[in-house]
Design brief:
alpha+beta, three-stranded antiparallel beta sheet, seven-stranded mixed beta sheet, single chain, about 180 residues
Length: about 180
Amino acid sequence: MSLYMFIASDFSMPFVDNIKTKYFKFKEGVKIDVDDEGIIYYYTNDRDRNSPDLLIPCHPEEADTIVADSEESLQEIQISKGLKCDYIEWYTNKSNIYTLDWRYTDKRANDLINYFKDNMKVGYEVELWSTWMDECKKPTIYYYDIDSLKVVDIEKVFNSLAFDEPRCMVISKTV
């Protein structure tokens, strides 16, 4: 089991791809060495050491290695189509499910608030969930209007070092 965060709504919302990482798998026959200083080398012979020709772009689940500008850029906000399954239906009856991948920072929380302000429809609400996959427990639910939602509210719900219970923010847009 693992942590699963998702957005549920009754209207379509745009996907977000802020990914600043690239995923690669090694071509067949590539050897990998690490020197005494922790530098990783990949090669098939001495002439092609760390050649980009030895890497094949791929999907994250297939990756042997990740290339990123910095550790901070590894967990930028990504919102993609999620799957409506029995586990999700236990938590929500909303018709549109979006997977939310991110690591909490104040800047990202502010970006998420702006995403909702820009994309929510008046008279509707969205649910922002943090759950433990395939585990159905009674969640703690918090209610906010988008115009009063603050970074500290998102921090309270999503900046936890350990998962202790499912949490949901129901965010409405009244004006």
